[in-house]
Design brief:
Oligomer: single chain
Number of helices: 20
Shape: rod-shaped
CATH class of the largest domain: Alpha Beta
Number of domains: 3
Number of strands: 12
CATH superfamily of the largest domain: Histidine kinase-like ATPase, C-terminal domain
Structural class: alpha/beta
Strand content: 5-15%
Largest sheet: 5 strands, mixed
CATH architecture of the largest domain: 2-Layer Sandwich
Length: 634
Amino acid sequence: MVQPIQWPFSELVLGAWLAIGLLFCSYNFFLGLILRQHWLTWIIAPGGVFVAIEYAYFGGFSSLLPSGIDRGLLLGYLGCLIVPPTIIATAAFTRNFLNLRQNNPRVDRVLGGIGLATLIPLIGLPFMPLQWISTGMFTVICAGAVAATYAHWRIWQSGGLQMRLLGGSWVLMGPALIAWFARNLGMVEGGPVTTAIYLTGFSGNLIILGIAAIARFRELNEQALASLKTAHQKNIAARKRERQLRDEIQQRNRSFDAQKARADAEFESKRAFMSLISHDLRGPLANASQALGRMLDGSDNTDKEGRERLLGSVHETVQRQVSLVDRLLDLDTLAHSSGNSRAFHVNFAQIAQERLEAWESHALNKGLELINETDREVPLFGDALLISTLLDNLLANAIRHTKAGRQIIVRQPQGLINGFEVCNACPDLTETQSARIQRAVSEEGTNEHTTPAMTRVSDEPDTGSGRGIGLRLARALITAQGGELEYQYRQPWVTLRIILPEAKPWILLVDDQAAQLTEMRERIHTLETDCEITEALGVDEAIERMSQRVPDLVISDIRMPGKDGFDLLSKIRHHRPWEEICVALISATASEEESDQLANQAMRAGADAYFNKPIAQDDLRSLITALKPAANPG
C-alpha cells in the first residue's frame, strides 16, 4: 500500500520541482501548436497528472478529499492508472521527435510495444487486489526498462547530435522512471534517496531534452534559411526570366510591326503593278499583233528590209514581255518566301557574273558592253534569290534604256557596307527624263494616266511599253524586304544603288541548364550586337524552334541528358534547309586531352567551331561578328 510522506527537502525545492514540471508541459504544448506537431501537445495530459500525483503524494489535496477516503489507497490506484499513459507519452515523445518510424522502424516498434505492454495489468484492476496489480505493473516496467535500454542503445548508435542526446538520456531517465513508479506502486518507500534518484534523473533528462530541442530549432532555422535563400534565388531567376520574356515580346512586337509595314508596302506595290500591267503587257503586244496582221493580210507595202526590221522589233517586244512576266513571277515567289528567308554571306561576284553572262547576248545585239567590277573578296549578306532578282531587273532596265555603244557596269563601291550598284552611260539624259527615273524609283505621284517613267533612249521604233516597270519591280522587291533603292545621275552615268536590309542575325542557344542559357544571353548582350536570341532546353526543343524559324547561328552544349550536342549537329547537317547553319559546340572538360578529343570529334561531325566551356568573350564576339557584313576596305 502506498504511504504518503512529507517532502524530504526544502519546500522551495518542491515548488521549483512542480513549477519545472508545469513549465515543461506548457512549453511542449505550445511548441506543438506552433510547429503543428500535434503529438507534442499531448504531453500536457500525462505531465499534468504527474505534477498532481507528485503534489498529492507529499501531503497536498488532503483537505479536498471527502472524509472516509483512504489517501494511500487512492494514490495506489492513481499510481496504477498513471503508469501506462506516462510510459506511452514518454515513448511517443522520443519516437516522434526523432521520426523513428522512418529513421529506425525497428526501434520504433520496440518503444511502441513497451507502452502497450503497460496496459496489460490494468485488465485485472476491477477484480484483483491492488497489491497484485501494482506488482504486475512494476514487473512490466522492469521488463520494459530492459527493452527500452536496448532501444535507446540503438538510437545512440544511429549517430547525429539528436540521436546521441536522446539515446544517452536513458542513462538518467531509466533509473528515474523505475524509482518513481516503484514509489507510486508501493514497492519502495518514498524517502530522500528515492526522491533524489528520480529528481536527478528527471532534471537531467529535462536538460538533455532542452538541448535536443535547441538543436532541432537550429536545424529547422537552417532549413528555413536555406528555403528562403532558394526562394530568393528562384525569385531573382523568375524576375530575370520575366525581363527576358518582356524584352522578347517587345522584340517580336517590333518584328511583327515591321512585317506588317512590309506587307502593307507590298500590297500597295502590287496594287500599283496591277494598274500598270494592262498597259505594259497589252499595249506592246497589241502593237506587235497589229504589225504582224498587216504583214499577213498584205496591207503592209514596206520593202523586205523594212519587214525584217519590223519582225525583229516584234521579236524584241515579245522577249521583253516574257522577261517582264518572269520578273513578276520572281516578285510573287519572293513575297511568299520572305517570311522564312535567311541571310547568308553571298558571293555577289559570282551572281553578277552569272547574270551578266545571261544578258550578254541581248546586250551584244544592242551594241552594249557589260562590265563586272565586283570584288570577290567582299561578299554580300542577304538572300541569294533576292539579290539575283534585283540585279536581273536593274540589268533589264539598263539594257532597255541605254544607247548602242555605251557601257553598263555592275560594281560594289567603296564605303557601301551591304549593297551594289548598276550604272549605265546616258550622256544625253535630259532633266525631264531624270525626273521620270526619280519618280519611278521613289514612287512619288504614281498615276496610271499621267506618270510615265524612264523614256526609251533609242533611235529604234518603240514597240515596248516605255514605262520602266523594271524599276518599280526592283523598288517593290527591296522595300518589301526592308532595304532601299537609290537613284543618282552624274554626267554621263545613271546609277541605281541597292542597299540590302540590315543584317540582324538570329542566334539559338541550346543547353539543359537554364542558368547557363541566361548567362550566355547576358554575355552576348554585353557585346552590344544587334541580334535576336532564343533559348532551348535540350535537343528536342531546339529542333522545334528551328522548324519554326531557321537560325543563323546555333551555340550548343555537348553534354546533355538524352540527346546531346552531337545528335543536334547530325540532325542539322542531314536536313537540307539547315545545312548552312553555323554551329558551334561547347563543353566543360577536365583536361586538355579531353578537350582535344572533343574538338576533333566536333570537326569530324561537321561543326563550324568548338570551344571549351565557358567560351571566351573574344571567341564569342568573333562568332557573332562573322554573321554580319563588313564595310568594303577604303
